[in-house]
Specification:
Belongs to the enoyl-CoA hydratase/isomerase family. The chain is of the alpha/beta class. It folds into two domains: 200 residues, 2-enoyl-CoA Hydratase, Chain A, domain 1, CATH 3.90.226.10; 48 residues, Lyase 2-enoyl-coa Hydratase, Chain  A, domain 2 (Orthogonal Bundle). Strand 1 and strand 2 form a beta hairpin. The longest helix has 16 residues. It is globular, with a radius of gyration of 19 Å.
Length: 261
C-alpha cells in the first residue's frame, strides 16, 4: 500500500498520509513518498492549493519507533548530515517541501500531531485542528532534538520561550492551547472539510497573485526590510495588467466569478 494517497479536483490536491494502522507513523518509505508527491505537485502549473491530512485515527503519531533502532545502531553521521535537497537533508525536506511548494498548503489535523507529524504540519501554510487534537514536539522524550525542519518553521509560529518550553518538556498541547500560542490557525469540528473549503476559496482567486503572495510572505519572514519592500514592488509590477489580473477586474465589473486559464 502506498504511504501517501493523492486526489485532485478543481485545482485542489488532497494529499493524505496513508498508514492508518500505525497512526501514520513516519518511516523511511513515507518520508520518500511525501517528498516525491510534493515534487510532483510543484511541477503542476494547474495546481491552486493543497490539503494535507492523515487517514484513520490521527494526522501523524511521529517517527516510527522501529526507525530509532536503525538510527541508533547505524551511521547517524552518514544518514543525517549529507544535504540532499539544497540546504536540507531528506528528513528536513519531508516538511520543508510543503513550505517550498508554490501554492498554499493547508494541514487538517485530528487525533495527534506528534514529533515528525507536528514538523510536517508546521511546513504547511495553515493548520486546521479538530477539537481535542494533541500536538507535541516529542523528540526530547527520546533524548533527541527536532531535526525535520521544525527549527525553521516553529519559530515563526510561537514565541521563543514557548518553543523552549514545548521542546524541553515534550509536553502534549491540546488544540485549544495550540490555537492560543500559535501552533494552529483555527479549530474546526471537521478540519478536513474546513481545509477543503479554504482551499476552494483560494482556488477561486488569481493563481498568479496567490503564488506571488506565497513567495512574498516567505521573504517577509526571512529578509531585511529593504529587500521585502523591493520584492513587494517587483511582485506587484509583475501582476499588474497581466491576464489573471485583467480577468479579476473584468469579473468584478461584471459581477461574476473570474475564470482563469
Amino acid at each position: 500500500m502506498s504511504r501517501v494517497s493523492v486526489t485532485r479536483a478543481g485545482g485542489v490536491a488532497q494529499v493524505r498520509l496513508n498508514r492508518p494502522e500505525k497512526m501514520n507513523a513516519v518511516d523511511f518509505e513515507m518520508i520518500d513518498a511525501v517528498i516525491a508527491v510534493a515534487e510532483d505537485l510543484a511541477a503542476d502549473a494547474s495546481l491552486r492549493a493543497v490539503v494535507l491530512s492523515g487517514e484513520g485515527r490521527a494526522f501523524c503519531a511521529g517517527l516510527d519507533v522501529a526507525n530509532f533502532s536503525s538510527l541508533a545502531l547505524g551511521d547517524p553521521e552518514g544518514l543525517i548530515m549529507p544535504r540532499s535537497h539544497g540546504a536540507a537533508n531528506r528528513f528536513q525536506q519531508f516538511s520543508l517541501a510543503w513550505r517550498a511548494l508554490p501554492v498554499p498548503v493547508i494541514a487538517a489535523l485530528h487525533g495527534v500531531a506528534f514529533g515528525a507529524g507536528l514538523q510536517l504540519a508546521a511546513g504547511a501554510d495553515m493548520r486546521i485542528a479538530a477539537p481535542g487534537t494533541k500536538l507535541a514536539v516529542m523528540e526530547m522524550k527520546w533524548g533527541l532534538v527536532p531535526d525535520m525542519g521544525g527549527m525553521v518553521t516553529l519559530p515563526e509560529l510561537v514565541r521563543a520561550d514557548v518553543l523552549r518550553r514545548i521542546t524541553w518538556t515534550a509536553e502534549e498541547v491540546a488544540a485549544e492551547e495550540a490555537l492560543r500560542i500559535g501552533l494552529v490557525t483555527e479549530i474546526a469540528a471537521d478540519p478536513l472539510a474546513r481545509a477543503v473549503e479554504l482551499a476552494g476559496v483560494i482556488s477561486g482567486k488569481s493563481p498568479s497573485a496567490v503564488r506571488a503572495a506565497k513567495r512574498l510572505i516567505e521573504v517577509a519572514y526571512t529578509a531585511p526590510a529593504d529587500e521585502v519592500l523591493e520584492r513587494e514592488s517587483r511582485e506587484q509590477t509583475d501582476l499588474i495588467g497581466k491576464p489573471d489580473q485583467m480577468e479579476v477586474i473584468a469579473a468584478n465589473m461584471q459581477g461574476r466569478a473570474p475564470k482563469f486559464g
